[in-house]
Design a protein that fits this description.
single chain; 1047 residues; mainly alpha; 50 helices; 4 strands; ARM-like; Maestro_heat-like_prot; ARM-type_fold
Amino acid sequence: MPLSRRGRGPRGGSSRVTNTSLPWAPAHLPRRAVRGAPPSSHAQHLTRQRHSSEQVPKGPETQADFRSGKWLQERAGGGTGDSRQAPRAEMDSRHRICSWEEVVIPYASDSDSENVDLQQSNLEDIKKSPSSHEFTGSCISSLPLGSLTARSRHPSHEDSLSEDTIEKLIKSIQEFFNGELKSEHKKLTFLRSLSSLSQTLPDDETAESFIHSHIADIVHIIYMVVEEEPLHSLFSPVRQEVFVTITDLSYRGVHLLFGSKGRDDLFGLIIKSIITLPSEKTLTRLQEILPSVSYNSECLYRQTFQMFSEMLQSLVVKDPHLANFDIIFKHLEPWLQSVKDRERERAAASMARVLKCLYRHLTVRFPLRFQTLGRLVAQMALLCGDPLKEVAEEAAEGMHYLLHITLRLKYITEDKKNHQSLRRAMKKCQELLKCYSIKCFYSCPFRIGQIFEVFLDSNELCQFVLTILNGLKNLNHQCTQQSAGELLISFVKNAKSRFEKVPEIMGVICAQLAMISEPEVRQQVITTVSLFISMPKYTDTVISHLLCHPVPYNRDLAEVWRTLKVEPASTTLILSRLLRKLQKCHDVPTQGKMAFAAVSATDALYEVFMGNELPEATFELFPQLLMTLLIQIHHSIDLTMSDVAIPAGLYAKQEMSSKVTPLCFAIQATKTLLFRTSCLQEFSIMEKDNGWTLLAGKDCHLQGVSLLANALLERNHVLAQRILYLLVPLLNRGNDKHKLTSAGFFVELLQSPVARRLPSIYSVDRLKDWLLHGNNLFKILALRGLCYLIRHQKMREDIKSLMPRFLDLLCETEEKIVLLAIQILLQLVRTMDFCTLSAMMTKLFSLFGDTRPDVHCLSMTLFGASMKSVKHTDKKGVENQVLDSLVPLLLYSQDENGAVAEESRRVLTICAQFLKWKLPQEVYRKDPWYTSPSEAETVCKFFGKKCKGKVNILAQTLMFSKDAKVPIRRAAALFTGLLSKYLDRSELQTKGTKWIEDDLRHLLHDPEPSVHIITSQALFQIQKVGAEPDPEQTLGGWRKLLGCLST
């Protein structure tokens, strides 16, 4: 049953049906306007003439000829009527195709005038003001681009189809939905019937309803038809008929290429089928191989692209929102980048024809959905510098119309508030265009970029840059890479801070850099990175992106860091931001994994130092750089990359070497920093004294820090002072490792003369706080700092108030703390009062015989210094302490440690001077007592007599018989045996010798034979002395006996 129709009057459109007995009739091709003879060469086949899409002007129009470099006066051939309204000539379709010379599209719908009115209304607000009028009159009209006014024509209706014919056409088309189109005849019949039916739209409701309800079927069949066309399908009219049918439907508002995935696929297939056709030479050879083909291959080749171009143009004639144009560009863009010259040439020619048509019929409505302007400008600009002359010429023509379109769009869509901005942009555009000839301008991508940059918004700028970066992958054409590099730098310099998607741009740069081998182009890309990173608005963004790559950096990223070229004012900014990235990681607690940013920032600093492109900033920030890297070393000790919080997927495409550790990056960066800042002497000291090994050690890191600080203080005191002032406000920041490394360096710098200028709150007071810290390392650093500061007289009184604390530290188990405390007390001993001296001597006496040789030795030194510091009036108060020290000092003079033995003899001399004794020379002999018993007996005799009744030296000596050291036990046993000869016999008889013998007998089991032998001799001597009567008592008895006898 026929569908109802609206409108019974004549139907518009050129009839494509002739009388026939079939329910459908083959459609006739419309009569085309022809002009001139066929072009004589292949280079002219894709020219603006064969793809002319402008309406025939009433008078001559001046346009730029991008092929000859001249201005030409063009006139379109044919009449001014609609060329699509004439019936097809009755002849075989194959011959009909070869008769076409040029296609003109004068078509415009009934609503075109309304579109023009809308454009005018959009401009009314702007044109009302005098300044706006001046803007429109002087700015746009003065550009050498031709008129911006879109001309339009209305089709006339010559023939109409009867209702019966329409129904037959519908029925025949339906039959093809269910059947197969195997033969060329059936395919042509289907396409021409569909095209003829489209001529009834939109007047006939039945035809309109049928077509719209069967769009999916139509698209599917056409897809199959195109897909089945072989490479030599130019010898068949099917492909050309597909273009004509789609064009007819497009003019009637039915789009087979937009609106769904199926239609989009069809569009892509059509473009691919035409762009990838063999070259004309190949087709000529095919014609020779197929002698049955009677076509002129040159004519076929030209006319196929003519109809394809017409089809594309029909899609944008009525495209008020520019959505169709975006889709066309999306499908053509890959072919504009093709590595094959013929494909790139065809795509460029097609794009130029579309742009020209769009320019002629630009009827914009809001909302405007032109989303690809930046990409389009970039792509066409790159093609203007294409090595193939034909491609460059086609692109130049397209760019000519694109600039024209861009000016109009920006003028219409520009916000009124930004009117002055647009005015300035237009003025700049004029100034730039005046500097170049038209042909020179459009053949230089760099100049094109200068012009368009002023009109692109931030999103379009990003599109432009990303497209240019994509052009850098063109490895086949070096000049294209160079053009892309020049465009890139030009745009980034001129656009400055108008970019928004900088991370995306940086991502593409990092990905593309590996594909660029040309040194000059690589440097241009890196210069682009330098431009972005030097802008404060983007510095953090660029650095953050560059840091999000695997470490160690690959060759390309390393080159970026090493060859950054920025203004001196920006170099400090870049390094300081890198430092801040690293320092933030040091502010968090040390528990958990290390942040990946810390490792990547360290590696980045290493690469920057290696390149030595930022020498001024490196010297300026040297204190911060050095301290931050030392702190990073401390954090990295004993860590592997498994202890780093690596972002997921970062190392998905590569394996991580087990040799790579956070520590190696930090050490490398520190070494490079010293070398690049000419700290060569410091570097040498670190190498000679194993400084790098010390820095990397868990327990000796602070020793390495101390070594470097002292080297810097000795060789470069200016830098050392700068670091000192830097550290003053930073010592209490960050976590414990941060504080420890900073404190270690700070303390060593207190040796500098400028340290005395520091206020007490930043020096002594801070060290006082560290003395109370629970971490012994801070106590050690505090004591070292006080050792240095106590040399300054004005600070000594403040430090002296810590005396009780220093005395308490003598009881610490940490050797370094005790040694440093003694060193400080040595410097304060002359200022101590009697009570302090007495208390200190008591504590020092307990350290005699300490298993730590340095503590033992230094405690005796301080004991001797204390005796010297006792005033004459107070000597009686410490005499007993001095007497008690004699035996220990005497025995330790036999210590196996030469320093301890020597110090014992020295302090023993001080004690003798204190007691006003004169020691026998045998005391100072370095040979052991057992080698010269007679000399030992002399020493024992002296001390036995001097100490008689003052101190029980025998009891003191026996205490050392249990000493851990063999020489001391041996000396104690020998001294006991010799001393027994000079003991008070009455006391021995009263107390007995059993307690002495008991203490000595345990030495008989000593594993050292010499101790055993000497102990045996001592026991014998003790027993002998105990058995013998006192000589004084015997003499007294004889005297009494003689007295009795005499009486």
